[in-house]
Amino acid sequence: MSIGSGEQALLTAGCAQMHRFYDIPGGAAAGASDSKMPDMQAGWEQMNSNVMAGLSGLNMVYEAAGMHASLLGFCHESLILGDDLIGQCLRCVRGIEVTDETLAVDQIADVVLSGTGHYLGTDQTLSRMQADFVYPTFGDRTSPKEWAENDKPDLIEKAVARKEDILSQRAAARLDPAIDAAIREKFKIYLPA
User: Fold this and answer.
1) Separation between Cα atoms, residue 144 and residue 85, nearest integer Å
2) Strands 27-29 and 60-62, how do they pair?
3) Distances (CA, A) of 18 to 27, 30, 56, 158, 180
């Protein structure tokens, strides 16, 4: 099986279309990769299938992030980068909102007929930038000059650093101490309480 293939992405879209046709909720696989690591292949395969799943109207996506090697491997860094990737997919699914407010014909007229000749100072521009754009946590949108001045940050290195930060901290989720003790009494647990 080639989980990262375009054909698998089509099958996922087909599943979504069947769920919609029969008006039932359903899920399918998307977002997994045949790549063995978070590289360019993983990126295009994960994005392709996640976007197709979303645009097809899939209710639930299995393997949406972190899965590699045709589901034989899992990568924490890829899971972390998947947050940006899925954010972009969801933005595509949301589409372009066309309303009187988003068209802002009054502001267009003002800028063109009596304004500054650009839209950067309008309230609508700022609010649309905040509502319509997805700003990635790890993706780099700086210019090549700024990127070089920032010592050419590497996406994977940033994900590794974030993973190490997450794993170095104790999780906020806790079991009730009595339940934790009962589980530890019954099973050999290697993690500290």
Assistant:
1) 21
2) parallel
3) 11, 16, 10, 39, 44
Residue 4 to residues 16, 66, 69, 75, 95, Cα–Cα distance (Å): 17, 12, 9, 15, 24
| CA dist list (Å): 100 to 1, 104, 106, 156 | 48, 6, 9, 42
CA angle 173, 179, 181 (to 5 degrees): 105
Residue-wise pLDDT for 54-77, tens only, equals: 999 998 998 889 999 998 999 999
Three-state DSSP at 151 gives coil
Residue type, 54: G
Which two tokens mark 95? 């589409």
Q: How confident is the model over 128-166, as pLDDT tens digits?
A: 888 888 888 889 999 999 999 999 999 999 999 999 999
